[in-house]
Amino acid sequence: MHKRSKESTYENLKNEGTGREESEEYIEKVYPFDKYEITVRLSPTNEFIGIVEVKVNKDFLSYKQKSTSKGSHDVEKYYRE
Q1: What CA–CA distance (Å, rounded) separates 56 from 37?
Q2: Exposure of 41 by Cβ count < 10 A (0-12 exposed, 13-18 middle, 19+ buried)?
Q3: Which end of the chain is more exposed for a tag (fewer CB within 10 A), N or C?
Q4: Cα(67)–Cα(59) distance, rounded to whole angstroms?
Q5: What is the pLDDT of residues 28-49, one digit of tens each?
């Protein structure tokens, strides 16, 4: 009997999980905004329903910083034969 109650508890947890489930009632889209990523919920007709999530974009470098040369070293001055 203990085993059966454990299984039913697992089934309850599995059915009532905390993860997001895809739904046909709405669409979720992620929009980048400055240093943030905003997830919004839209109806099937693309009407705004609400904001679901706001995350900080973990890539803190700007485009200019990403494209800047990293510099160079002349290895001949370190490794002379």
Answers
A1: 6
A2: middle
A3: C
A4: 14
A5: 999 988 888 999 999 999 999 9
How far is Cα 4 from Cα 10, in angstroms, rounded to an integer?
10
**Residue carrying the six token digits 């803190």:** 60
Structural domain harbouring 31: 24-60
* 35 in any annotated domain: yes
Q: How far apart are CA 32 and CA 38, in angstroms?
A: 6
Q: Domain for residue 16, yes or no?
A: no
Nearest residue to 50 via CA among 41, 58, 37: 41
Count up the domains in the chain and report the number.
Answer: 1
pLDDT tens-place string over residues 62-79: 777 777 666 676 777 777
| Host H or E run for residue 5 | helix 2-15
